[in-house]
Amino acid sequence: NCLFCLCLTVGLWSSAGMIAFLQGTLTEAAPTGVVIDCHGVGYAVSIPVSSFSKLPAVGSQVKLLTYHHVNAQDGTQQLFGFATGEEREMFLLLTSISGIGPKLGCNILSSASVTGLRSAIAAGDTKTLSSLRGIGKKTAERLVLELKDKVGATTEAAQAPPANPREADAV
Asked: N or C: which end of the chain has fewer CB within 10 A?
């Protein structure tokens, strides 16, 4: 059963946008994008590499949480998909920072695990953050300044040596 859900509840409206998730048949899959067939309509969705590794085989049913982005300048629209709520939450935190748009947010999630990002931000590790693709020294400093209190890191995590964000969730 393939479902397309427009979720307009107040709680999800502000964080996910108009399209909260897509559920359907995975028809194409690449490390940075997928196509999901929902009742005969193929939705192209950009994804971080971390979500790609969690996808089922092409032809299987899949559900991705989404963020619907509308470019204010030219009206173009793009869907970003996430395998977990934690990935989408980090994406929304990242894109709340001036200078980090949805494509860069997705690239950051492709370069580091959510756990690694949280640890680096909580520890104020701008060196590690600025080593990620697309993040310079000033953006790394803004990430720490604006997100340190929002990442929900425990006191122990903030005091521990920062984990390498590229390997923190590696299996």
From this structure: C
Residue 75, pLDDT above cutoff 80: yes
- pTM of the prediction? 0.79
Answer whether residue 100 shows pLDDT above 50: yes
Sequence-ordered strand ranges (E) for 3-158: 3-5, 21-30, 33-38, 41-46, 61-70, 77-82
Strand (E) positions, the chain? 3-5, 21-30, 33-38, 41-46, 61-70, 77-82
Cα torsion at 94, 125, 86, 20 (round to 10°)?
Answer: 0
Give the integer Cα–Cα distance in Å for 139 and 117.
Answer: 14
Q: Is residue 102 a contact partner of residue 95, using CB atoms and an 8 Å limit?
A: yes
Q: Dihedral (C-alpha) 113, 117, 123, 126: value to the nearest 10 degrees?
A: 120
Q: Distance between alpha carbon 58 and the CA centroid of its chain, in Å?
A: 21
